[in-house]
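Collaborator request, handled under Task 6.
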Amino acid sequence: MTLPAAPEPDSRARINLEWLLRLRWGLLLGQALVIALAAYGLELALPVPVLGALLGLEALTNLAVRVWLPRGRVTEGTLGKLMLWDTLVLTGLLALSGGTHNPFTTLYLVNVALGTVLLPARWIWGLLAFTLTAFGSLFVSQDVVLVPGLSRPDHAALMRLHLNGMWVAFAVAAGFIVYFVQRVTRALGAREQELAEARALHARREKVASLATLAAGAAHELSTPLSTIAVVSKEVERALAAAGTTETVREDLRLIRQQVDRCRDVLVQMSADAGQTTGEAFHAMSLGRLVEDSLAELSGVERVKVELPSELGTWEVHGPPRALARVLRGLVKNALQASAPSKPVELRVVARGGGARLEVRDSGAGMAAEVLSRAGEPFFTTKAPGEGMGLGLFLARTLAEQLGGSLELSSASGQGTTACLALPAGAPSPRSVAS
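Structure tokens returned to the collaborator:
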């Protein structure tokens, strides 16, 4: 069993490429607006058909990448090549619309900045070198005689374009950099959060597997000596009774047998708790049947007020039936123990978010914040010795998450505690706790 791996390079590159495509569409729209404004608003002599063709080529590239993306393998090289192509197209646009006088040469910086975020070192330096070369080529191309049919703005028009567009160019470049970097960072942060949650879930499953192994081993190793102690103590009690030994001695022997029986019960309970969901098949189970099985043979069930709407009673959840019933029974039992003997316990079933929530509320004293923060840790309990091992909430949360749901606790001192077991509708993929 291995820890969940870090996001694959293809996965990270795919996220980056999706955001890069969005940025490219934004840049494409911005470039089209700027060209239209310069040509028809400022009435600069620009080769609009050729510039439009370059923008169309860029749009076709975007569409081709979008079509290829779902089935292609995305690498850092894919991003690097696409950004080199963007630099080349930008150079063509600038060369035909003012060259070095065009204030939108700052868009070169957008590509370099994004490359620093998205690409490894070798690609970053390669992109920087290519960008510097492309930018430098503008100084050469502005002296090249254009083919017939193409023209450049004169010097006065170029200066007017430069002065009027500096602020706009800076705003566009800075805006795209901030937007893209912020969105990529947020997407990667969400991915890291998913990874942390997967690792936490994996750790809990490992604990459950360890508990099952420990319980099985302990039950196997201790069953024989405990049985021997029980048999021998019984025989000794009979022999002492025949010999007329005092009742006090025989009472001590009976205490020994009681403690041996208690040890057996603890082993059986730990083995059942830890191994309940391991290997049990997943089946559909109605909420009505789940509530009925959970409350069956539960001491103090007459104090439980069940609120189960008839339309929800037939809803089905999928999972290991005995484990689900045991989890809900444990939550109700905890609530009964936390409440005074004369106080009721509420069990409500409500529909929420396409699934079902089973809410168990007690009438007890509630939990302090520091206790609530630790509730659900394995072997943490506030019960008296012998009343619990601190595994119930831990195993309940593990099973709920295994099924795609959750277990949430809310409490405040003097206001009781509410345990909410959320179970999704539909059939999740069965995943063993120890897998």
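The cover message to the collaborator said: "The chain has a mean pLDDT of 76. Residues 213 and 275 are 8 Å apart (CA to CA). Please let us know whether this matches your experimental observations."
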